[in-house]
Amino acid sequence: NAGVTQTPKFQVLKTGQSMTLQCAQDMNHNSMYWYRQDPGMGLRLIYYSASEGTTDKGEVPNGYNVSRLNKREFSLRLESAAPSQTSVYFCASNGLAGAHNEQFFGPGTRLTVL
Amino acid sequence: DQQVKQNSPSLSVQEGRISILNCDYTNSMFDYFLWYKKYPAEGPTFLISISSIKDKNEDGRFTVFLNKSAKHLSLHIVPSQPGDSAVYFCAAGSYNTDKLIFGTGTRLQVFP
Q1: B4 and B100 in contact (C-beta within 8 Å)?
Q2: Reduced to 3 states, what is the DSSP secondary structure of residue B81?
Q3: If pLDDT is split at 50, 70 and 90, which confidence band does B97 have?
Q4: Per-residue pLDDT at B1 exceeds 70
Q5: How far apart are CA B13 and CA B112, in angstroms?
Q6: B100 close contact with A: CB closer than 8 A
Q7: Nearest-angstrom CA–CA distance, A52 and A23
Q8: Is the distance from CB of B68 to CB of B50 less than 8 angstroms?
Q9: Mean pLDDT for chain B overall
Q10: Tens digits of residue pLDDT in A47-104
Q11: Around A93, how many Cα atoms within 13 Å sit in the side-chain half-sphere?
Q12: What is the dihedral of CA A58, A35, A42, B58, to 10 degrees?
């Protein structure tokens, strides 16, 4: 099992460019999440998907869109990138067997917006 | 308003000693709490969790203590090892939502 995979690992964009961050999990999990990590801010939830076909906003959704393509894949799109979106982005999925919503994280995408 | 707070951004401990990482929360409705560990250039990994109806949970060298009246939890690592050097996040959740709320993290350095 690969767990949670994310592509790309690194990306540099210019202000105004668009891109999609890809995430896939092979653990048959229902819930998937997108977080951003910034220095001193911890992990902040951008969007999540409790099941295939549903998405909901998290704490910091502005400037982002998501698509739950199928049960395995959950993508995050930046339509017009801004320097404030420079961050490390993590995708996660929720393990069904855990009672405490133990989430499994991907390795992250480091995004720089110039 | 930050519901989960880790007020110490960093902690340095000698190998073999105890590491104590602290976390405070404001919402008394949380049902469970978790600790995650994160190495550089990797995603966070789950370490240990505790239900709000418990006051202690132990897993090997890791013990989490919960003080509900103080809205405070702590992670004890005994004995600390150099491989424990990482950033530790506490998180809180409720059974009526799929979301977790994370603290800002504490960087632990264990030196020889």
Answers
A1: no
A2: coil
A3: confident
A4: no
A5: 9
A6: yes
A7: 14
A8: no
A9: 95
A10: 999 998 899 999 999 999 999 989 999 999 999 999 999 999 999 998 765 678 899 9
A11: 26
A12: 100
β-strand partners of A35: A45, A90
For residue B44, the chain A residues in CB contact (below 8 A) are 43, 90, 105
Decide if A108 touches B, using CB distance below 8 A.
Answer: yes
Radius of gyration of chain A (CA): 13
Residue at token pair 């103080």: B70
Structure tokens at A49: 């998907």
Given an 8 Å threshold on Cβ–Cβ distance, is A104 in contact with B99?
no
Residue A83: Cβ-neighbour burial (10 angstroms; 0-12, 13-18, 19+): exposed
At residue A99, the pLDDT reads 73
* Residue ranges of A 77-106 with Cβ closer than 8 A to chain B: 90, 92, 94, 98-106
